[in-house]
Amino acid sequence: MTYRVCFVCTGNICRSPMAESVFRTRVAEAGLDGTVEVDSAGTGGWHEGDPADPRTVAVLREHGYGTEHTARQFQASWFSRLDLVIALDEGHLKALRRLAPTEQDAAKVRLLRSYDPAVGDDLDVPDPYYGGMDGFEECLEMVEAASEGLLAAVREQVEGHAG
């Protein structure tokens, strides 16, 4: 059985492709790449078909992550095939829960930083799009910090399904 995770931000060119790349690496390192499928999308379709933002690509490459990406818009019909939908901020969380066809689907939507045990009250990953490279570095740090907890939660689900 494949466990499917989709990361969602606004345009699918900065935060969600970064989270997708980092988490895909964590999944592979954990030996779960045949079991866990990772992708990403945006709440809007403005950048559909575009690659990730060049600053996202630069930060990922600098830290040894993959950079292959094509932006797309999240569709409500995807809920039926996804196990977990990871929102990058509160606005995405609300938009995705409104889009969810059922209460069960809405319950699949979680904030990425809720998986970071060291995080405070602010669970948003700020949008780095309108800033400089430091915002992209900060975004990567937040994504990496939450990825370990997310991996542990996904591993628990995968092992629970297998047992």
UniProtKB/TrEMBL annotation:
SMART domains given in the database record: LMWPc
This protein's record includes keyword tRNA-binding: no
Domain Phosphotyrosine protein phosphatase I: from-to ranges: 3-153
Pfam families named in the record: LMWPc
Keyword annotations from UniProtKB, A to Z: Hydrolase, Protein phosphatase
GO molecular function annotation: protein tyrosine phosphatase activity
Annotated TM spans: none
InterPro entries cross-referenced by the UniProt entry: LMW_PTPase, Ptyr_pPase, Ptyr_pPase_sf, Tyr_phospatase_low_mol_wt
Active-site positions on this chain: 9, 15, 127
Listed EC numbers: 3.1.3.48
Catalytic activity entry: O-phospho-L-tyrosyl-[protein] + H2O = L-tyrosyl-[protein] + phosphate
CDD domains cross-referenced by the UniProt entry: LMWPTP (cd16343)
Keyword Plastid: no
Entry similarity comment: Belongs to the low molecular weight phosphotyrosine protein phosphatase family.
Name this polypeptide is given: protein-tyrosine-phosphatase
Organism from which the protein derives: Streptomyces cadmiisoli
